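Incident log, structure service

09:12 report received: a user says their structure output differs between two submissions of the same chain.
09:20 pulled the input from the user's history:
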Amino acid sequence: MSRASTEPDTESQPTAQEYLDGFPDVSEYIGSDRELALFRRFDVLGARNLLYLQARLLVLEEVLKRYDDEDKDFIRRNCKINAEKEIIPSEAALEALQITKDWTTFVSRAEKDIRDDDFSKNGRTKDHYRKRLDTILEIQTVLKQYQEALILHNKVLQLDSPGSRALEVFKAWFNRKKPFAGKGNKLMENDDIAALRPSQGQDRLSKTLQKRVGWMFQEKRPVPPSWGEMVYFSEKHLTRAVQILSVLFLALALTGAIIALHYIAPTGWRFGALGGFLLTFALAVGTLTNATTPEMFAATAAFAAVLVVFIATGLPK
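09:34 re-ran on a clean worker, output below:
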């Protein structure tokens, strides 16, 4: 992997053919390094889209509830109570009850509403069940859109933000080139930028190496002259250097602590030195890496365990 920059290089940069201005040029620039795959999330539009779909579902939910209430009232009005105080539903009420329980009967009755030009019996309009079916089908469509948009918006919001260096380089190139027309050139003025593939070397040690000895990890790539001076950093080589330095630091820190504790005779001084070594190790891990709090605790605990065992076995009897 690599990293792009607009910093000048000491050697001449190989050139490539110019690309067609506009979308072809921008796509080639983004494709030149995966870390430059920066796009807007459109957080506000995504939220508004969800609100619109949500509002449509609220209306449809209310319409469906109204149909339920109408059917409930229709069945109640078409039932009689006999001398034994038993509820006797009429033929129309039985049909309405069957429709509420069986999907096939419901669809068949809705299709009959479409074919029938007259009012049905008992005061039910010819399109009662057709409208109910249309509402249900619309709910299925809108609900599917809403749930898909909800899940997609959740995933989009979880996309990482770009590293400060990559964002700075992209904005500088974009604002200088102004590749689009009209409002397209304001694309990078917003803060809702997502990185599809953020750099793996965002820890402080990687940034320090890149800033101080970045020339060691540079890659030469041919770019169009209109892109300006471009410097690409090999993320593979940078990551390997960070791994080697991390292993060396851990080995030296552990060896140095053990040697120092070996020559400290008083027990009280040993434990004081132990606390100092642990504090230094924790600060180094927290400063030079992106380790989370649990990871810092785990690393410091493992470091402390080795030193405590050494102190315990080396204490006078």
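09:41 both user submissions now match this output. Likely a transient worker issue. Closing.
09:42 reviewer note: Confidence is low (pLDDT under 50) at residues 1-10, 117-122. The longest helix spans residues 43-77.
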